[in-house]
Design goal:
The structure holds 2 protein chains of 2 kinds.
Chain A: E1 6-13, H1 18-31, E2 34-40, E3 50-59, H2 60-66, E4 83-86, H3 89-97, E5 107-111, H4 118-122, H5 131-139, E6 144-148, H6 150-157, H7 161-172, H8 179-189, H9 193-208, H10 233-240, H11 244-260, H12 263-277, H13 286-299, H14 304-311, H15 314-323, E7 331-338, H16 342-348, H17 351-359, H18 361-367, E8 374-377, H19 381-392, H20 401-420, H21 425-433, H22 442-456, H23 459-463, H24 468-479, H25 486-496
Parallel strand pairs in A: 1-4, 4-5, 5-6
Antiparallel strand pairs in A: 1-3, 2-3, 7-8
Chain B: H1 7-13, E1 20-24, H2 25-35, E2 40-43, H3 50-57, H4 60-66, E3 69-72, H5 76-82, H6 85-88, E4 93-99, H7 101-116, E5 122-128, H8 141-148, E6 151-153, H9 159-176, E7 180-185, H10 186-189, E8 192-196, H11 207-212, H12 226-249, E9 253-255, E10 262-267, H13 271-280, E11 294-297, E12 299-301, H14 305-312, E13 317-321, H15 328-339, E14 345-347, H16 360-374, H17 393-399, H18 413-427, E15 432-434, E16 452-453, E17 475-479, H19 480-497, E18 503-508, H20 536-542, E19 547-552, H21 556-568, E20 575-580, H22 584-600, E21 605-612, H23 622-627, E22 632-635, E23 646-649, H24 658-665, E24 672-679, H25 683-709
Parallel strand pairs in B: 2-3, 2-4, 4-5, 5-7, 6-7, 10-11, 10-13, 13-14, 15-16, 15-17, 17-18, 18-20, 19-20
Antiparallel strand pairs in B: 1-8, 6-12, 9-11, 21-24, 22-23
Classes of the chains: A alpha/beta, B alpha/beta.
């Protein structure tokens, strides 16, 4: 029984070209005198699911000598696969879960990029926090493990990921076939030959190097020596006096407020932050850092003026161009989808006027003609100027109804943090983090505010408990668990029951 | 027109004697039909046999030259009834569908076909979709074979064997006047392999011959007293004839091995995986040589008692490897051997699981248990039964998310179900009767719509109990495929006749999309072999619907209005909404090459796609919960202050417009934008953009300068 079948399993997602890859592998094997069998279970997996392709290879010459055809299995078997290929990170994890990756035998070739599943994408917060951990875990699984970002490799050459997979299989040397016959199969396929060959070659070299190491997280920005104008220099000096753990975030926060409003606003941000920092006795300065982050986000709440400002920025058009892959110099029109409600319109008015509008049925009815879906063309002069002027109105923002509401909310929130910090430090940190609940627009924003208020309403009760901080963190997670508030209601009921 | 083009595969249908056929199992079956002189072929598409239908659809000229009639049957019942042509005439006919769903639909006709018996060979090719990745992991075809007495072939998943099974299946059918079922598991349908082709054959007796000389035999009509005679004929003549034929022609295989104490009986379809399991237990080599005697049932019904007796006599124990439940073969074997005084112990489900797919891992464990108990002397070296233990499996399970099926990028059903979700925000939860089709995926996240699925085209029928006015109206969903399959009568006609006060939505995407985009009676594309463009609206009016409205699904506002109207109108009676939107997979396949060609030819083309502004997206993902489009995904938040990922439209976006509609209808957020990419702009475009660019750029540069001046 010296003969051994080579077994290869490929996990691919719909639309990644797993079928094409299989055809190539069959052609390559047959050209090299191998008997090959492949199977797959596409079924409904062709609609966004994953498909496993399974191939076995056996030298024809040995079969001829034995006078018999080898019997090949129709599915991969745990521990008995020579090479497991996964075109996506979670699918590689699934292959390991199924026991296909044998640490004494299997070469694991996987892409490090993620194609998120619906549960991960639709989470109200971060539904996929574990990618780095999964990557770490996979690193030690195979007898050899070759990991790199195959999606990026495919993007570099405008090819499908299948050509990258083929290059990686060739580069890993798991099949006893020469590079030339791989390339010949791509040529014979006749489709997108040039881009496929380029992606193949690129992936082959990466695989020969053993894959890529993961990118290192970017280091925190250093505090610059000099501000652009002397007038702003005092802000930098104030940031430098903050606890080290909060400085980078505070710099980012001050920049945000400066961009959002003006230097006075950035100074207000630092002033508010400094008041909390003064109460922070923790060497890690967790409260200062959390407040620096949350305060900056809250103070730059997304009102109509802010959206208009961001939508008309020059760098934004450049970003759109690259995101939609416009060719250099290609003409492009951009359309925005706005749907202001009465609340948004009133929020942009001077506070007194805004309140009168909201209180008066007649005014509401009149204003409602300006609500509803608006498509604004920001690459047309009219649409652009409309938003540009709206953005420019931000110098009057402090007088708007929305600003006054948010400002009052911010002050109340900071007051709670300050009040709790001395005796209930950990709880104060969680209160700072609660800002995360209040985000989005329209109903989403209202729901977030309702949840935030509900949790703040529990603070007295929580302060009386030794596990108050952990409980609040759990409540925050529950508030982000579902849109209907089911999990939150359950947690709150449990809390009330003691 | 189906999702895939089979031009390449069609070529292999023309192969002549001695040439090598290479391709997947189900195509080998198609070629074998032509080699067998089949006169007519029909069927209903469904995984894993869709390709058989698709290839034949693309091969009309070959079929014409051979004088073979092919049709895409309206349902499996239609296909089964078509086999009536073989009752009176020596015509070979074959039909195909997905089992057991299709067999359920076809069983009325199958009962009568099996009772009347056939003169020409009648072959029913079944894609047995059971096990991992199956969309309907329920029940066994075996029960149908036994109850109606049709012979069941379960050949080895090896192309030459599959082809042999087709050819011998016709002969068996003719020799025993009984229809024959050929079942292929899903992996066997998709297995790539080779066989040496033979020439295609024209049917010896043609359909025209039959029509020219109609033959009638009251004995073949299924009314008494013929049926009494047929029932006797089944057991007295056809069954013994089948057992004789199977034994004489050696349809089942015995591989003697060397061991005299034990033996293994297995379904032919499980041969490869069983041999691999034995190889892993060091009881077989890669060529399938083993010391254990094997009795391979390429015919799993009927069983041949003489063969069983010969194989089992003298053995202490025999393992029966039979996938699925109940264990019909095992039960029959115990009885047969008992009656013949053979003392071998039959072992089966006591070492193998009662339900579920027999994967190699499952088989290895079962075989190990059997051999440990009954064949310990062999003292096989310890199996490489490596239980994976090195990985923190518990942790891994938390890190690997499930990946349920969903609607494709740009699917026209997405805006419809998003509208339904918005509607429920106004009305509260509704009772929604779902159906089979792509729209079944609406029962999964992120839509989670639908309370039951009863069967293909049965969405409306399944809401019948709620038909009389009860206050809130029940809503049912039906696809256009299911509508033509049976829903027009079972659902719509029924609701008219019984004066239901309910709402039925017919999702009209123009194709039988879930099975691969085959044409159906309401398909709009030109097809020279089929008569399409039959209006669903006309059809429901024809059966008496008075309240019927059409909506274009991509227009969510309109759709929502019509849905509200249907739920709240004073009109008492069944209400039908036809929700139109072309299947995007098919649309893209049609449109993409045209667009590419137009761009290459220098024509002005505008391509739309959507995007999300990471600056204004706050990472709540409401949009994803309302849409679930594969191209609408998440990416790391570029804002250093935020941790929640932002929504992001990747490059698979086809610009269907749903993102804008959803953002609009749901009052979501202003982050979505649409980019219109202009290819080959005209002089006017260039001028306009130059002017706009100059003005906008001037304003932007000014504010950018101010921004940079005031930066930290």
């Amino acid at each position: 029984m010296a003969e051994r079948t080579i077994k290869l399993s490929v996990a691919a997602l719909g639309g990644q070209g797993g079928g094409v890859l299989t055809d190539w592998l069959i052609a390559i094997a047959e050209a090299n005198g191998y008997i090959v069998q492949s199977t797959s279970v596409p079924g409904v997996a062709q609609r966004t699911g994953a498909t496993i392709y399974y191939l076995e290879f056996f030298p024809r010459e040995q079969a001829t000598r034995a006078g018999r055809e080898p019997i090949m299995a129709l599915m991969p078997v745990a521990g008995d696969v020579d090479c497991v290929v996964a075109s996506e990170l979670a699918e590689a994890g699934r292959a390991v879960q199924r026991g296909l990756v044998n640490p004494e035998r299997t070469t694991l070739i996987a892409s490090t990029h993620r194609t998120y599943a619906i549960a991960e994408k639709s989470a109200m917060g971060d539904g996929a926090p574990h990618t780095a951990e999964l990557l770490d875990l996979l690193r030690g699984q195979g007898q050899r493990t070759i990991l790199f970002d195959m999606e990026a490799a495919a993007e570099r050459h405008h090819s499908l990921i299948s050509a990258v997979l083929l290059g990686a299989i060739c580069g890993a040397g798991v099949l006893p076939f020469p590079r030339g016959s791989f390339e010949e199969a791509i040529r014979a396929g006749g489709l997108a030959v040039k881009t496929n060959l380029a992606a193949f070659g690129d992936a082959l070299e990466i695989a020969q190097r053993g894959g890529e190491s993961p990118p290192q997280p970017a280091a925190a920005a250093a505090i610059p020596e000099r501000a652009q104008t002397p007038a702003l220099q005092p802000l930098l000096e104030r940031i430098r006096r903050l606890p080290p753990a909060a400085r980078a975030t505070a710099l980012e926060g001050a920049r945000r407020c400066l961009d959002y409003q003006d230097a006075r606003y950035a100074a207000l941000y630092l002033e508010r932050l400094e008041a909390i920092v003064a109460l922070d006795r923790d060497p890690e300065a967790a409260l200062s850092e959390a407040t620096a982050r949350a305060l900056a986000l809250w103070m730059s709440f997304e009102d109509t003026l802010r959206v208009a400002q961001l939508k008309t920025r020059g760098t934004r058009l450049e970003r759109v161009r690259s995101e939609v892959r416009a060719d250099a110099g290609q003409l492009l029109d951009v359309t925005e989808f706005m749907k202001p409600r009465i609340e948004e319109i009133a929020g942009t008015l001077p506070a007194g006027m805004g309140r009168r509008v909201l209180a008066s049925a007649r005014l509401r009815a009149w204003l409602s003609r300006f609500t509803g879906g608006r498509q604004i063309h920001t690459t047309h002069v009219g649409g652009f100027v409309l938003l540009y002027l709206l953005g420019a109105l931000r110098r009057f923002r402090r007088g708007t109804l929305r600003y006054q509401e948010e400002d009052a909310r911010i002050r109340a929130w900071l007051a709670r943090i300050a009040e709790l910090a001395p005796a209930h430090y950990a709880l104060a940190v969680e209160v700072a983090r609660l800002q995360r609940l209040v985000k989005g627009y329209g109903e989403t924003h209202e729901r977030g505010w309702r949840n935030f208020s509900a949790l703040v309403g529990e603070l007295d009760r929580l302060a009386a408990r030794s596990d108050g901080a952990d409980t609040l963190a759990r409540l925050q997670a529950a508030a982000l668990a579902d849109e209907e508030g089911t999990a939150l209601r359950r947690e709150l009921a449990a809390l009330a029951a003691g | 027109m189906a999702e895939r083009s089979f031009a390449h595969e069609v070529k292999s249908l023309r192969l002549g004697a001695g040439e090598e056929f290479r391709g997947e199992g189900i195509l080998a079956v198609t070629k074998a039909l032509l080699q067998s002189g089949v006169a007519y072929v029909g069927g209903y598409q469904g995984a894993p046999v869709s390709h058989l239908m698709d290839v034949l659809s693309d091969a009309e000229d070959i079929l014409e030259s051979l004088g073979v009639h092919f049709e895409a049957s309206a349902s499996e019942a239609t296909a089964a009834a078509m086999l009536a042509a073989s009752i009176n005439y020596p015509l070979r006919g074959a039909v195909t569908w997905k089992s057991t769903v299709g067999t359920n639909v076809a069983s009325d006709a199958l009962s009568n076909l099996a009772s009347a018996g056939v003169r020409g060979g009648a072959l029913i090719i079944l894609g047995e979709d059971y096990g991992e990745g199956a969309s309907i992991m329920q029940e066994r075809t075996h029960a149908f074979a036994m109850k109606s007495q049709m012979w069941l072939l379960d050949p080895r998943p090896h192309l030459p064997e599959i082809v042999r099974a087709v050819e011998q299946g016709f002969e068996l059918s003719e020799a025993t006047h009984t229809p024959v079922m050929l079942m292929l598991r899903i992996r066997a349908c998709h297995v790539y392999g080779r066989f040496t082709a033979r020439d295609n054959r024209r049917p010896e007796f043609s359909l025209a011959d039959a029509l020219a000389n109609p033959h009638r035999d009251y004995g073949r009509i299924i009314l008494p007293p013929s049926t009494y005679a047929q029932e006797r004929e089944k057991v007295e003549q056809r069954l013994p004839a089948a057992q004789r034929f199977i034994a004489e022609r050696g349809l089942n295989e015995v591989m003697p091995g060397g061991n005299g104490d034990v033996g293994i009986v297995l379904q032919g379809g499980l041969y490869n995986n069983t041999l691999r399991a034995l190889e892993l237990l060091h009881r077989a080599d890669p060529f399938g040589r083993t010391d254990l005697p094997l009795y391979l049932l390429n015919v799993t019904y009927p069983l041949v008692p003489d063969e069983w007796e010969r194989f089992c006599r003298g053995k202490k124990a025999v393992l029966v490897i039979e996938e699925g439940q109940p264990e019909y073969i095992e039960q029959a074997a115990s009885q047969m051997l008992h009656q013949r005084g053979v003392a071998s112990r039959i072992v089966g489900k006591e070492v193998l699981p009662m339900a579920g797919e027999y994967t190699v891992d499952v088989l290895r464990k079962g075989l190990q248990r059997f051999l440990d108990e009954w064949c310990p002397a062999a003292a096989a070296p310890a199996a490489p039964a490596r239980e994976v233990s090195l990985t923190p499996m518990g942790r891994l399970a938390a890190l690997v998310p499930p990946r349920p099926s969903g609607l494709c990028t740009g699917c026209p059903e997405r805006p419809f179900f998003a509208a339904m979700k918005l509607l429920q925000k106004e009305t509260g939860p509704l009772h929604i009767s779902a159906d089979i089709g792509c729209h079944s995926f609406a029962t999964l996240p992120p839509f989670n719509l639908g309370n039951s699925i009863m069967g293909y085209g049965l969405g409306a029928a399944a809401a019948s109990a709620f038909g009389s006015p009860q206050g809130r109206r029940a809503v049912s969903v039906m696809g256009d495929g299911g509508f033509w399959h049976n829903g027009l009568t079972s659902g719509i006609g029924n609701s008219v006749f019984n004066k239901h006060d309910d709402v039925t939505i017919i999702v009209d995407n123009g194709y039988s999309a879930a099975t691969g985009g085959q044409d159906i009676p309401s398909s709009r594309a030109a097809n020279q072999h089929r008569q399409g463009n039959n209006s669903i609206v006309d059809a429901v009016r024809g059966v008496g619907i008075r309240w019927v409205k059409r909506t274009h699904t991509y227009n969510m506002r309109e759709t929502l209005k019509i849905l509200r109207d249907a739920l709240h109108t004073d009109y008492r009676g069944p209400k039908v909404i036809v929700a139109e939107g072309e299947c995007q997979l098919n649309r893209q396949r049609r449109v993409r090459p045209l667009t590419r060609k137009a761009i290459e030819a220098g024509e002005r083309v505008v391509r739309e796609r959507f995007g999300v502004d990471a600056d204004t997206c706050t990472g709540d993902h409401s949009c994803i919960r309302l849409s679930g489009c594969p191209s609408l995904t998440i990416k790391a938040n570029p804002d250093p202050l935020r941790s929640d990922p932002v929504a992001h439209v990747d490059n698979s976006c086809v610009g269907c417009g749903v993102c804008g509609e959803v953002a609009d209808a749901a009052v979501l957020c202003p982050s979505f934008y649409r980019a219109d990419l202009i290819y080959n702009p005209g002089a006017w475009d260039r001028l306009l953009h130059a002017v706009r660019g100059a003005i906008i750029g001037w304003l932007q540069r000014g504010s950018e300068r101010r921004r940079l001046r005031h930066a930290l």
